[in-house]
Hints:
Layout: H1 9-14, E1 27-36, H2 42-54, E2 66-70, E3 75-80, E4 84-93, H3 115-119, E5 127-135, H4 143-150, E6 156-160, E7 165-169, E8 179-185, H5 190-210, H6 214-243, H7 253-290, E9 293-294, H8 302-309, H9 311-392, H10 403-435
Parallel strand pairs: 5-8
Antiparallel strand pairs: 1-4, 1-5, 2-3, 3-4, 6-7, 6-9, 7-8
Amino acid sequence: xxxxxxxxxxxxxxELHTRPFFGYDGTGRLIRxxxxxxxxxSSILAHVNSWLERCSxxxxxxxxxxxxxxxxxxxxxxxxxxEFITITFIVNDNTGNMGLPVFAFNKDAASFLPFDMIDTxxxxxxxxxWLEVADFQGDSITSDAICELLAVDNxxxxxxxxxxxxxxxxxxxxxxxxxxxxxxxxxLNPDRVGRSILRLLELETYRILTLFGLPNVRSQMSExxxxxxxxxxxxxxxxxxxxxxxxxxxxxxPRLSKIAARVEEMSAVTSYRLSATKAYQEIFLAxxxxxxxxxxxxxxxxxxxxxxxxLPAMQTCIAFGExxxxxxxxxxxxxxxxxxxxxxxxxxQNTALLASMDKRxxxxxxxxxxxxxxxxxxxxxxGVRLVEYIATTIPSQYLPLAITQIKALSVPIVAFIxxxxxxQATRTKHRSVFKx
Length: 436
C-alpha cells in the first residue's frame, strides 16, 4: 500500500533545487539581465517565449520558475522571482586563452548572443551584469591593470576561498550599460567555480535590489521630518493644556488625527519596499560572507568598498523605518493621552452637571412643597365655604350646632382631605415619571 503524501510535500522539498547552478569549466563570460515587473511577468515571459519558438525551443510554462537551455553557441538560463526575472547568457571560451580575457566586456565580440531579444523587451532593464571568468596561476597583477580592464578609477578586489581565486568588481555601469566583474580562478574545480559564479551574480543582483528602496526613502524623508516636528509641537501643546487643566484639548484631536492619517499613508507607501530592502540586504550580506573573502595586497577590498559606500545607504533605509515606527508609536501614545484627558474632562463636566441637577431638584422640591401648602390652604377655604353653603340649606332646628361652629369644626377635616388628595396625586405623578 502506497503511503499518502501531503500535496505540498514534494513542492517544498524541490524548492531547494529550483535554481541550481552547474559546474563551469575553462574560461568565458556570463551576462545577466535583470527585469523588474509589477503584478506578474507575463509580458516578459511572452516576449521570451516568442524568441524561444523562433529558435525551435520549448516555451516556458507559467508554473516553471527556472529554465536552462543549452543552445548552439551559449547556454540560456532564466530565473523567475517574486518581483524580478533574470536572463543569463553563459559562454565558454574555446580559444584556449587561459590568462586575462582578451575580449573582456566587448559586446561586439559576442555578437552571436541574442542582444536584440533583450533590446526589444517590453520592460526596461533594471540591471545588467557582465562577468568574465579566467584562469590565473598566481602571476602578479596590478591594481592599475585591473582598473584598466574594468575601465574604472577604483575597483573592489579580494581573494576568495583562502587564495583559491580572485574577484574584482567595478561597482558601476559602463557606457554599454553593464556592471563588470572579473573572476580569476587559481585552483578552483568546476563545481566550485559554478557556485562562486552564482554567488557573485547574486551578490551584484541583491546589491542593486538592496538600494532600490533608497530613492523612495529619500523622497519621503522631508515629509517624515515635518510630521515629527508637527507631532512634537502638538505634544508640547497638549502638555501645557493638561498643566493648566484647560478644557480646550478637544481642539487638538483633528490635528492628531490628520498626523495619524499621514503616518498610515506613508507606512502603506513604504512598508513593502522597506521590508523587501531588509530581506535583500540579508541575502546580499550572506552572499558576501559565503565567498570567504580576504584582503588582496595592493587592492581596495570588496568588504571595505561596500562598507564605506553602501553601508550608509542601507543605514538610511533602516533609520527611516525606525523613525516611521517611532512616529506611529508616539501618535498612538499621544492619542491615548488625549483620550484620557478628554474622558477626565467629560467626567468632571458630568459631576458638575449632576451637582447642578441635584441643586435644581432640591429647589423644585421646596417650591413644590410650598405650592402644596398653598393649595391645601386654598382648598380648605373653598371647602369650608362649601360646607357653610350646604349648612345654610338645612333648617336650623335640624342642625346640631350653629353654622359658625360647624364651619370651625370642618376646617381641620377639609384641610386633611385636601392634603391627602394632593399628596396622593403627587406620588402617583412621581411613580409614572420614574417608570418612563
